[in-house]
Amino acid sequence: MGIISLASGSSCWRGLDYFKDKKVIRLRKINDKEYTSIVNGTKNYNVYLNLEHPRKSACDCPSAKGKRIICKHIVATYFSAMPEEATNFENEQDRLQEEYEKYQEEIYYKVINYINKMSKNELIEELVHVFDYGPEWIYDDFVRRNYIE
Ligand SMILES: [Zn+2]
């Protein structure tokens, strides 16, 4: 497992911001697999990054100190050490977003297509179901838009 897959989504995004805002102020390479840095957050935090054993990475900020958590400071250090991974991360997120939107659009057209094939009775049943189980505002909106008094 890599640093990114072990970190939470918000740590990844915040870490990316920190990297872009150049908050990693002192990056030192120990060897190909280990780095240390100082990251300028609320305070200055000391980060140890281990690419070979990501869970051995450490940071002395309140959310990661003494825990095996990959915080935003570790992620920011990772992106500073491997800038191409920051680009990969962003491209991958863009790709996932596009895929999701495409999927949503496909489902939407399938739903419209399905509705077009439903009988009047089936449509009535569905509408009543939405009124019974959907949010109340849908019912209120229906009453208002159709001038039902
Ligand atoms: Zn931290």
Structural commentary:
With 149 residues, the chain is an alpha+beta fold. The chain folds into two domains: 3-88, no CATH class; 118-149, no CATH class. Helix content is 57%, strand content 15%. It is built from six helices and four strands. The chain has a four-stranded antiparallel β-sheet with strand order 1-2-3-4. Helix 2 (9-20) crosses helix 3 (72-81). It starts with a helix and ends with a helix. The mean pLDDT is 95. The structure holds zinc ion.
Specify the biggest β-sheet.
4 strands, antiparallel
In what range is the share of β-strand residues? 5-15%
User: What bound compounds does this protein have?
Assistant: zinc ion
- Number of extended strands: 4
- Provide the helix percentage: 55-70%
Shape label = elongated
Q: Name the strands of the widest sheet in spatial order.
A: 1-2-3-4
Q: Helical stretch count?
A: 6
Question: What is the H/E string?
Answer: HHEEEEHHHH
End-to-end gap:
61 Å
Model regions low in confidence, pLDDT < 50 over at least 5 residues: none
What structural class should be given to the helix and strand makeup? alpha+beta
Residue-averaged pLDDT, rounded? 95
Radius of gyration: 25 Å
- How many individual domains? 2
